[in-house]
Amino acid sequence: MIKYNVDIGLEVHVELSTHSKMFCSCAVVDNTISPPNSSTCPVCCGMPGTLPVINRNAVELALRAAIALECEINHTSIFARKNYFYPDLPKGYQISQYEYPLAENGKLLIHTGEGDKYIRILRAHIEEDTGKLTHVVRDGKSYSLVNLNRAGVPLLEIVSEPDMHSVEDVAAYSRELRLLLRIIGVSSGDMEKGAMRFEANLSLRPEGCEELGTRVEVKNLNSFKAMENAIIYQISIQKSTLEKGEKVHQQTLGWDETAGKTFSQRSKENANDYRYFPEPDLPPLIVDQEWVSKISAKMPELPKAKRKRYTIDYKLQAEDIERLIEEKETVGFFEACVQADPSLAPKAIVNWMLTDLFAWINQSGSTLGNLKINPSDFTALIMLVEKGVINQSTGKEVLAEMLEGGKSAEVIVKGEGLRQVSDSKLINDMVETVLVNNPGEVKAYLNGKETLINWLFGQVMQNAKGKANPQVVKKSLQEQLNSKKL
After folding, report:
1. Do 120 and 152 share a structural domain?
2. Separation between Cα atoms, residue 322 and residue 394, nearest integer Å
3. SS3 of 401, please?
4. Residue 122 counted as domain residue
5. Residue 251 counted as domain residue
6. Residue 263 CB-half CA count within 13 A
7. What dihedral angle (degrees, nearest 10) is formed by the CA atoms of 58, 178, 224, 144?
8. Domain of 347?
9. Number of structural domains, the chain?
10. Nearest-CA neighbor of 441 among 474, 483, 481?
């Protein structure tokens, strides 16, 4: 049996987080709530005689992404017309970049089960989005509705080399790219709203053969799951085709999520099919080094550097770090907590954030951004637990009350008399009372049923209404039970 190597490259279309469109002043709107065709003008509708104007903010966001991806910035790039007909493309062409893109030759480090590896970035170029078609079937008739709110929205297309050779590679690359773009504020990465869409180019070649096989392109994959499933399916189909001695045909495919398979859309076009030529209504885009340097100086800490710092400075585990850096909001809250009380161990902050705080947020439907408490309030609670003023169990209850009402931990603890009891004599008396009142359980424990110590511990804590210091209770309980063995 011939073994095959898989080669996968991704084209990722990223919606840039601008307030207005790429070549006009129309607002970028949320199509899930905005009426169709409510944010359009003659420019984005492709009316004759209109002239596009480049959105400076879109260029700056694209440069930010190119810098983060370690690309070479082309100080002169050219916009081009990509000609093709489709109902959601009002001009009959898309303004994009072809021969002279904004940036080239970058790389992105990914983490896989086989170790770290770089995926090369072939190019990153700016273009405008198309409109959106909604296909309708009503009264036995089918037709399509066109919504041009999205037409002209600025996109950055990031094209990788075919350096991925498994679904795991693709998953790692796409997630790391999304994380990077969100961290640096280039895009929301919200795939449900189409802010990030994937196209996968995939081919197979016999093991040992250096020449790439015939590739197919799977278009408009709008979720990680869809992309991974489509790639798995296509690998299976191409492998089966080659094993039969048949040829793989270059073509563009769609993905049917319901059927779980790809379907042919058209024969794959080559660049000359689009009849690219320079956009006559736009001058060359000139990016001077001073502008690039200013953007570089304002770049936030990138995920790679943040992982290293959290590992070395905060002694955090990789799993905790990944959960922290998933969202800018989470990173911001954690960093603010560390600054609020530098004496508090970062690991303690992380433990409370990723368990009790996140659990409450998930249940309440809230977010870190609209909590009734601030990072100083949160760290003050953790410190009360760390100092033994209240125990862990009471701390959880106090946190829930803080989040519901916005009161500080100190006010709640003082107002409700929740301070932890650590007085040894008082706790010894509590333990003795429980042992006297439960002779049967004590006898069973002494006869070898040692798990009963947990039940007895629970009785003491219940009688103390959760205020007793658990460590002091455990010590006293063990000592008194040991004395009865003698």
Report:
1. yes
2. 29
3. helix
4. yes
5. yes
6. 7
7. -10
8. 315-415
9. 3
10. 481
